[in-house]
Amino acid sequence: MPSRNAVIVGVTLGQLVRQLPSARFGLAPGRVRRAAWARALRLSFERLGPAFVKLGQLISVRPDEFSAELVAEMQSMQDAVPPIPASAIRSVIRSEFAAEPEELFASFDDTPLAAASIAQVHRATLAAPCRPVWGDVLPAGAEVVVKVVRPGAAESIRGDVAIVRRLATRLAGTRFARRFDPVALVDEFAETVDRELDLRKEGRFADRFVFDFRDDDKVVAPRIVWSRTTAKVLTMEYITGWRLSDLETARAAGVDCKGLAIHGATAFMRQVFVYGRYHADLHPANIFVTPENTIAYLDFGIVGYLTPEERMNITQVMAALVYRDPDRALRYSEKLGVHVPPEHVEPVRKGLGELLDGDVRPDGTRDFAHFGLGFLRLLGAHDIAIPGGYGLLIKSLATVEGVARALYPEIDIVSTAQPFTTRILGRAMGDPVRVRERMPAAVRAALRVLTE
């Protein structure tokens, strides 16, 4: 039997060879050629299993480090695999709780709702009332979903991560790694996988999210049943709704898609600018609109965190977009770790100004994705390293804009952000600590003006 290394190399080379005609044997224009190689990698990752599917998903939210063609291709990655027998899922539950599913739940459906590379999801009902960390009691008979880590998934994925890390070490320093640090990417990937393999971490973030939006009756997330949750089993409230691909049905049922688009964009701004923790993987399978006219957030596997200082600097970058100020955008991006060498400052500033001037759509609304993703491409064109968190946030904001525009095409996410940026900057101006820090420089500037 060939080694896992040989399988990985063989599958990848095989897919690359199959894409040679599409790339015209390397002679196609750059975009066509890159799209063909990206398709080969996506197909390879899907065949190679869970670790590579997760790596592809990480690539899909990192336009700061990878080409637009590769990011777009990985966004279509299908994390759907054939379900494993219910007997295997039952064995995990039995191992975690020393009890059969029928002893833990009033009912347990052996037919899975969904099967992905790491976990499989089954429907069940509660046998007894459950008080979640926040919100009303879930009564006996309430519908829940039980997410179970597939047997052997952890060992298989961690083995593949070790192989990918060795490949990344060899790739580091080559011309293929000019735009990104492959070892750092694998470290980030390993951290993401470890988080997804311990379902309690997803449960804790979901609880935190529910608490953050406890005063908002338009934003919901599943409440966790901790008495039926372990590292390998996560039991949570079942939420019904329509995906973004089924909005016509939602509208026909009376859902206010325009109102939810505006509210949902505002909710994301609240996550970023107020709480500093946000859902970073809002693809259509992870967000619903519900019959109760709410937005439901699901699957908190990929999340982002911002320190108070980072939140202030991100606020300033967003203010630069609102007020079309490239100098402010560069100054505060520098504080976020985007270091532009002196010889590149002028061309980057010029390119940034062009992006700010070109972010208006024909309907008069502003296009954050044009600016944000364009800025990442501009930095990449000048071989300027982009911190992972910065790129993840910009990609998340662009995704939220896309989600909101699916609900209401005329939404302007920049205008949605403006009240947050104005309020946060206004509070910062009155902060005594900030005033003390800035006062000497302000006095010096005033004296220079007065004595000219």
Low-confidence stretches: none
Radius of gyration: 24 Å
How many β-strand stretches?
9
Biggest beta sheet attributes:
4 strands, antiparallel
Give the strand content.
5-15%
List the helices and strands and how they pair.
Blueprint: H1 4-18, H2 30-48, H3 50-60, H4 68-75, H5 86-97, H6 101-104, E1 105-115, E2 119-126, E3 143-149, H7 153-171, H8 182-197, H9 199-212, E4 219-220, E5 233-237, H10 247-252, H11 257-275, E6 277-279, E7 287-289, E8 295-297, E9 303-305, H12 308-323, H13 326-335, H14 342-357, H15 368-381, H16 388-407, H17 413-429, H18 432-451
Report on the structure:
With 452 residues, the protein is an alpha+beta fold. It folds into 3 domains: 1-78, no CATH class; 80-238, no CATH class; 242-452, no CATH class. It has 18 helices and 9 strands. The chain has helices spanning 4-18, 30-48, 50-60, 68-75, 86-97, 101-104, 153-171, 182-197, 199-212, 247-252, 257-275, 308-323, 326-335, 342-357, 368-381, 388-407, 413-429, 432-451, and strands at residues 105-115, 119-126, 143-149, 219-220, 233-237, 277-279, 287-289, 295-297, 303-305. It has a 4-stranded antiparallel sheet. The termini are far apart.
Quick description:
With 452 residues, this protein is an alpha+beta fold.
Q: Key terms for this structure?
A:
single chain; three-stranded mixed beta sheet; globular; 452 residues; 57% helix; alpha+beta; four-stranded antiparallel beta sheet; 3 domains
